[in-house]
Amino acid sequence: MVVFMTDGATNYQDTHTDYSDYVWPVRGGQGGTISLPKTGQTFSYASGDDGDLQKGTTWSSPRFTDNGNGTVSDNMTDLVWLKKATCFKVPWSDALYYAKNLASGQYGPSITSFTPTSGGAGTSVTITGTNLTGAASVYFGGTAAQSFTGNSATQITAVVGAGATGAISVTTPSGSATSSSIFTLTSPNPTPNPTPTPTPDTKTNYEFNGDGKADILIRQEV
């Protein structure tokens, strides 16, 4: 059976017959109807164009959803798009890792844990997550870390600066991630005041009337 593209008619034909305006059905079974979305054209340039007919199903609202992980979901087509098209400028091994996570809709960075969960300025904190390569900043409670080093795509070591209690956040070329738990900034142990050292003094007795008792006592602190 063939389908003629000129009028949609179907007919049984010899497979050796030379026709240029038909196609072979490639799939059988129960027929159905699909709904195509509108093209988005709203201005009409000619009678019968998309802007004139406005055919098709209405777009999803919202059309796109920011997944918060460096990707955007198209709610009409169910496709997942990268927010930053140039984010794959990374070593080959990391590119493979990112591509795998992109397929599961988890391209952007994430923070899964960190240790220790508290400490003062100067404390070294290991941050574990995904897609952490190329980190541009690390914050503790909204205050920048004193320093940080990217160990791998899944780990960063950061040194607490004069931060504050709060969530840890990391920004990379593919987006930002914030920890679900809180890092607690602790105050350093106060330095005890030194015990005062007694000040030696010198006493001098002066006796004038010969009774053996001091008439004047002069005390001089050294």
Give an overview in words.
This protein has 222 residues and is mainly β. Among the domains are: 1-30, no CATH class; 64-103, no CATH class; 110-185, Sandwich (Immunoglobulin-like). It contains two helices and 17 strands. The chain has helices at 50-53, 92-103; strands at residues 2-4, 10-11, 22-23, 64-66, 71-74, 80-82, 110-115, 118-119, 124-130, 137-140, 143-144, 147-152, 155-159, 166-172, 175-185, 201-206, 216-221. The strands form five sheets. A five-stranded mixed β-sheet has the order 8-15-14-10-11, with no helix packed on it. A hairpin with a 2-residue loop joins strand 12 and strand 13 (155-159). The chain is rod-shaped.
What structural category characterises the helix and strand content?
Answer: mainly beta
Mind telling me the C-alpha Rg? 39 Å
The assembly state of the depicted protein chains is: single chain
Report the biggest beta sheet as strand number plus sense, adding barrel if it closes: 5 strands, mixed
Could you name the ranges where pLDDT drops below 50 across 5 or more consecutive residues? 24-28
How do the strands line up in the largest sheet? 8-15-14-10-11
Number of strands: 17
Terminal residue distance: 121 Å
Strand content: 35-45%
As for the CATH topology of the domain at 110-185, it is Immunoglobulin-like
CATH superfamily of the domain at 110-185: Immunoglobulins
Annotated CATH architecture of the domain at 110-185 = Sandwich
Comma- or semicolon-separated keywords:
single chain, 222 residues, mainly beta, Immunoglobulin-like, 4-stranded antiparallel beta sheet, 2 helices, 17 strands
